[in-house]
Amino acid sequence: MNHAKSVRLMAEAVKVIPGGVNSPVRAFKSVGAAPIFYDHAKGSRVWDADGNEYIDFVGSWGPMILGHTPDVVLDAVRAQMLKGTSFGAPTELEVRMAETLVDVVPSIEMVRMVSSGTEATMSAIRLARGYTGRDKFVKFDGNYHGHSDALLCAAGSGLITLGIPSTPGVTAGAAGDTIVLPYNDVAAVRAAFEEQGERIAAIIVEPVSGNMGVVPPLPGFLEGLRTVCDEYGAVLIFDEVITGFRVALGGAQERFGVTPDLTTLGKIIGGGFPVGAFGGKREIMEYLAPVGPVYQAGTLSGNPVAMVAGLALIDELRRPGVYDRLEATGERFASGLLRAAESAGIPVCGTRVGSMSCMFFTSANVVDWPSAATSDTESYARYFRGMLERGFTLAPSQFEAAFVGLAHTDEDVDAAIAAAAEVLAEI
Ligand code: KE4
User: Fold this and answer.
1) Region 346-357: what's the mean pLDDT?
2) pLDDT at position 157
3) Distances (CA, A) of 156 to 98, 206, 239, 344
4) Which pLDDT value is given to residue 38?
5) How far apart are CA 294 and CA 278, in angstroms?
């Protein structure tokens, strides 16, 4: 493939944008390839600046569950833009989005819109602290909840990818109340609460980890968190920025039958526009200004364009059979890749929940960050480059998720599996 224009664009980008990218993981640092610059996309396909076509399994890191630029979203956005793109005032659209989230997500009785997943999780932690009057909170090693200071401890996603153990600029004061525990380890959580439970405001967890690769909850893990939070009066927060509307219409909390006190959302609910949300029990949410004392705000919160895009997308996801189709495509994709690895004699650990999956290049059974970290990232990098050259985009890191959506046909999936068989045979 010719990547001349992407290479030229990167040379221009690095002069004016740190690392040439507006989010580190896009720099392809851990996969030893020059980043490709996208130009346009439709359905399951994206085209780069050089006109190369790819079947896309990144999906903008999750939002493109219908595929890229679905007509229903474009039509809704086009109509709204002629009416106004931002008002800084309440609109009916925000009411309809809030009513939709209340209707669909089991834990949500009230919700506040923001403009990113980072804002959603940062605000949820502040709210839980304000509501309980406690300072500390628990997160899990390898979970990534965006880049607010207190949450950037032992985080996943780009920090793991770039090998950044902790981030300069995050002060001891900012991170001092963050308790980091091993994922899938209820005993460790219980021990922490026995030691200082009366000082712990919340547990925040990715109910299915998507930022150390895909790591599902072990049976009893989410239920255990719910029990401990009930015993100690702590707020249970499910960070469903990835899993919301992804692993079920009502997210992981619907799929696994565990209801948190607060839920954070993002990605899919914006239909490709900047969005985030946090919602949950009315009693907690009414601690938020202007009703309550916990301040939180945002110029573009509830942006009407993002609202119509999200509402149009969610309407499609509410159609009968959608999640059966996503499950079937996810299974076809993940199991086919595992068969290809097995045929090539490469030890891998495959994980999948619905339409999000991962293939760890390790013989370990991956259940947490230490086991995920045994993966051979060099092999993953060779796999990534081989697939890219054959016209398939995967996450540029071993420690992310692959996403399939409603635009992926069986032919798309089978072509990816055939390409993987070639690439893995050469690794
Ligand atoms: P944003 O601030 O990037 O919208 O959301 C932060 C966030 C919060 N919670 C979870 C579970 C998330 O996965 C994310 C962001 N996900 C990463 C990819 N794993 C975004 C990609 C990037 O950082 O460029």
Assistant:
1) 98
2) 84
3) 29, 11, 13, 29
4) 98
5) 14
User: Alpha helices of 4-91 — where are they, by DSSP H?
Assistant: 4-16, 71-83
pLDDT score, position 15: 98
The beta-strand segments (E) located in 121-199 are: 136-140, 178-181
Distance 184 CA to ligand 1 centre (A): 21
Instruction: Decide whether any atom of ligand 1 lies within 6 Å of the 117 Cβ.
Output: yes
Q: Contact, 73 vs 405, CB < 8 A?
A: no
The answer to whether 279 touches 263, Cβ cutoff 8 Å, is yes
What number does the ligand 1 atom closest to the CA of 23 have? 24
For residue 160, what are its two tokens?
């793991």
pLDDT the model gives residue 163: 67
Residue among 248, 226, 254 at smallest CA distance from 106 = 254
User: How many whole angstroms separate alpha carbon 110 and alpha carbon 105?
Assistant: 10
- The catalytic residues are 144, 239, 267
- Summarised one tens digit per residue, pLDDT across range 358-410 is 999 999 999 999 999 999 999 999 999 999 999 999 999 999 999 999 999 99
Q: What is the pLDDT of residue 165?
A: 63
- Mean pLDDT over the full length of the chain: 97
Distance 146 CA to ligand 1 centre (A): 5
* The two structure tokens encoding residue 182: 């091993």
Kindly tell me the burial class for residue 394, based on how many C-beta atoms sit within 10 Å of its own C-beta (0-12, 13-18, 19 or more): buried
Q: Are 393 and 403 in contact (CB under 8 A)?
A: no
Q: What angle do CA 131, 107, 260 make, to 5 degrees?
A: 65
| 226 closest CA partner among 242, 247, 203 | 203
Residue 42 dihedral angles phi and psi, to the nearest 5°: -155, 130
Query: pTM for this structure?
Result: 0.98
Segments making up each domain of the chain, as ranges: 4-69+320-426, 71-317
Is the shortest distance between the CB of 251 and ligand 1 below 6 Å?
no
Residue-wise pLDDT tens digits, 82-98? 999 999 999 999 999 99
4-69+320-426 folds as Aspartate Aminotransferase, domain 1 (3.90.1150)
Could you tell me if the CB of 118 is within 6 A of ligand 1? yes
Number of helices (H) and strands (E) in the chain: give both, helices first. 15, 14
Q: Tell me the CATH class for 71-317.
A: alpha beta
What value does the mean pLDDT take over residues 401-427? 97
User: Whose alpha carbon is nearest atom 23 of ligand 1?
Assistant: 23
